Amino acid sequence: MIGSAITHLVQSFSVVFLYWFYVFSVASL
Fold first, then answer.
1. Where are the bilayer-spanning segments (predicted)?
2. How many structural domains are present in the chain?
């Protein structure tokens, strides 16, 4: 239960991080 919750949290964080990385990359152009 805890492991699945942590995995879900990590996946969500990764998606948000990649999204903001993409946004800032486009904005810098």
1. 6-27
2. 1
